[in-house]
Every structure is written in structure tokens, then in C-alpha cells.
């Protein structure tokens, strides 16, 4: 269904074309009759030239240019342009002959009907054609630029939507591992009727609240991420008992620094999931500090190199998230020695917001 706006646009286009050709008619009358006193003949002859001018102009704009010039068929465009020129010159000659034979002004002896020769008349016609074609090409170029900008905006919008969906997908991949490990631990404690079970349930409840309600936010306070990271470590300590040794160092310059949610916890989860017990214990070292809106995060765990082919899909997902969230403003490095696995992460230009 054609909209009112589209109809109005077509009406305005038609009106502008009509106005243009009215102006051209008076241009012909002035151009051909300058210095002539026979205005009646000049006006009639100007009318004879209008059809050929309009036909040639529209033929160029709506057929030759779209089908040959814009499609880079330059040879055909030149050939058809030459044919059009020859045919139009013939029609102009016929128009002049018709005007000389049938015009009343020709019968008035001693009156000069026209002040321009045939070459000037042809030049005048093609001057008008050139103006019309040039203006049409300018409008076409303008519309192409606008169309390309709109297309770029749509592509950018689509890319942002895809990026958002990818981030959601990567976030959702984090949850199952974490929940499975935590629920497994609580289940084991409940079977053995240990006193730590209620405390574990409370900590898990806090973590679930963080995941469900904070994960959808683009940014969370770094201290909130650290607090929930420590809750996760507490859960793991209950699960490992005496076989776990964790050292945590936190040095935050400002409580207003924000990061993407669930960005650090997966590194910790990965350390417990893929770490190895060496000499009777699993050792995990966590260091978090900030300096001038720059985050330094380092985690190290005992890990036997010969037993490792990779450290899980979790690190790959986090690496993808970092590329999307902090492009060109982060570094992520991993190191594997004979007995340790280390991850070093730095993020520049972190935002700060007051925690109200």
C-alpha cells in the first residue's frame, strides 16, 4: 500500500519537473529571440524545441545512464549517446524547417525571426540536456550517499544486536559449570549432615542473586565482583577442606570502579576446576589491584603440565567477552609451567561511578 508520504513525494517531483521545463521554455524564448522583434515566432519556435529537449533529457537520465553509465558499460553508453545526438540533431532540423515553413512570422518580409544559427540552437538544446543530466546525477549521488549511510547504520545496528546476543550466550555458558560445582558440594555436605551446609546454602544464595540480577547489567562495581568472588572461594574452601590453600590479595584504589559482571569469577572457577593437588593440596593465588582506572588481575594455581591439553572452554569464552567488551584496551596472558598455571589480565580505562 502506497503511503501518503510517498504520494506527496511523487507529486512534488512531478511539480518540480513541470516548473523546470517552464523555466527552460522561457530560456529558449530569451536565448533564441534576443534582438528579434518577432516574439510570436520566437515563442512558437521555442515550443517546437521543447519536445526534443525533454525526450533527449529523459532518455539520458532514465535509460542510458542507469543501464550503461552506472553499470560501467562505457562503450555502449558512448555509442548510444552518439546515436541519440545524431537523431536529436535531425529532429531539431525538422523543427526548424517546420517553423520556417508554417510560421506566420516568416511571411513578414524584413523581419528577422531568429537571431541564432543552427549550431547555436543545437548548443542551446544540449546545454539544457547537460544541466538536467548533471542535476539528476547529483541527486542520484546524494541518494546513494544517504542510502549507504542508512545501510551502514543498519549493519552497525545488526552487528550490535549480534554482539549483544553473543555476550548473552557467553554469559549463559558460565553459569552451568559454577552451579553444578556448587550444588554438588552442598549435596555432599547434606548427605554427611555437616554443619557447614546451611552456610554454604546462604553463600550460594548470594551468588545466585548476583548472577540472576547483576549479570544483565552492562557494568557492576568491582568490589561487588570481588565480594562474590570471595564467596565462591569460601564455598570451595568448604568443599576441599584441608586440601586447599588460597591466598588472596586485594588492593583497590577506588570503590567506584566498574567492570562487566562475571568477568573475574570464571578465572577463579577455572583454577579450581582444572587445578591439580600437588603434595597434598591445591594451591591458588589471587591478586587484584587497581591503579589510575587500570585493573591488574592475576591468578595462579598448581597444575601438572603433562596432564593438561587445555584449560577448558571457560577461558576461551572469557577471551571472547574481553575482545567484545574491552577492544584494544586489555591484555590477557596465560602461562603454563611444570607445576603451575597462571593467568594475567589487565584492563585499561575502567569507568568510575559513585555508588549511591
Automatic annotation (TrEMBL):
GO molecular function, one term: phosphorelay sensor kinase activity
Keyword terms: Membrane, Transmembrane, Transmembrane helix
Pfam family, one: His_kinase
Spans traversing the lipid bilayer: 7-28, 48-65, 77-100, 120-142
GO CC terms of this entry: membrane
Domain spans labelled Signal transduction histidine kinase internal region: 166-243
InterPro entries on file: Bact_2-comp_sensor_kinase, HATPase_C_sf, Sig_transdc_His_kin_internal
UniProt-recorded name of the protein: Signal transduction histidine kinase internal region domain-containing protein
